[in-house]
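Below is how a single chain appears once it has passed through the pipeline. First comes the sequence as given, then the structure the pipeline wrote out for it. We keep one example in the README because the format questions we get most often are answered faster by looking than by reading.
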Amino acid sequence: MAIRGFSINISDKTSSRQATCFAQWIGASNVMRNQKRSEYVGLLAESKGDQINQAYSHIRTNKELPFLKAIPVQIMRNAASLVFADVEASRKGLRKFPKQKGRGKKRSALITKELFMLEPLGESKTLLTIFDNATKKRQKLFSIQLDYVPDQLCKQFRISRLGNKFTFSGSYNDGVDSPTNEELLNGFVEYNDDDLLAQITGIDRGVVLPACTSEGARYAYNPAQVAKLKAIAKKKAHYQRLLASKKRLNKNKNKHRCESKSQQNLATKISKLDSKTANVRENFCHTISKEIVIQAKPIISLEDLKLTNMTRKAKPKRDSTGRKFIKNNGRAKSGLNRSLLNVSLGRLGMFITYKANDYGKAVVAINPAYTSRTCHICKKKHTVRPNQATLVCLNGCGTFNADENAAIVIAQRAVPYIKESKFADKAKTRKNTAIRKKKAVSPPLVSELSSVKKSGKLEAVSSEMSPCLLTQTSRRKTTIRRHAVYQAFLQQGTLT
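Resulting structure:
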């Protein structure tokens, strides 16, 4: 049986009292998370990892955090438990160490069964009621109707916040037995390479063309969506200029914060425009991901894009003296980053993955290196791209559409992955070859080198020594010479 999730926007369904209470719960959960994380960092730095625990009472009673006493104990316990689980997973190498989460990030609070109640409504619906605390004098805080029976729903839910947007999410059991992605791939291990390639659809994701399949299907924003995104971007730039001007005239102490009501109003308008942009992108990803999955073959091959690495800022560069900064094309890199984030390549891949499994199709993530430069016929990188849409093979294979060629290469790379990866039950395991390290040989003339270091004089090395020993001795001489110069500068007072 498959466990699936749901997410409901409850921003318009909450009163001011409910929104304030949820905001307090979420804020307190984030404070508890950050406090426990800092505590764990200190313990690990002192090599006291065995003292890491889920205790949270000392943080809740902290005099510097008095607002935590008004929050239900269950909310604090859940926040401490979650960050403890994240830290333990990172220590086992399963994920990265949790980062400090600020106010500008999406934050959430976990609500367990002590704070809510499920009541059946008819045969296929449930009324979920959230209480303000877990005592006998508790009061109803918020109610929402869900399209699932109580037995299908999970035992915990999450309320998230990003700006003024509140989201209620959870999971349910749909009661349908569906094979996993690994089980689907195992069914194709017996195929030969040509038959297996005939069952694969490669998908190339890009900036100019968001998606292109190996069958030649292309997907991009329609003219109405493009016009809407441009209008939103233009209006947002206008409000940003006004906000920057007000902060400059007001002489804000903190340029990242709004210090007047008019500034806050402009920031709210900008936030709403960002939400509209996100809605357009999400709608586009949902639409084309479903079309791609329906038309695709039983296996879908995607690039395993590391978008976090791809959208990093350009590093500053210094000149040869190391004193001045030189141009690093940072503005061009920032523009490329905005373009990559604008088409939501990561979200598109995520939507394709889960929808493909719903339709009984498998997904393979392959190495994306040089897929846009490799010819799909000769498998060589001896190619040129006279423009963005064209790829020419210099080995005489011909001229191709660059996106379609990349999609075919992505499909071809999935074949060895399926045949040789962990999904192949009959694949032979590779032998682990132990590499013997060479024994360290002590350098000759140890006494002579030590005497030279003490006296500061460099003596000639015998020509009968081997080249390896000569190299070791020359490196040693260079080190001694540099050390002597350094000591001379210190004595003269010219180097501090």
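The chain has 13 helices and 17 strands.

See the next section for the split statistics.
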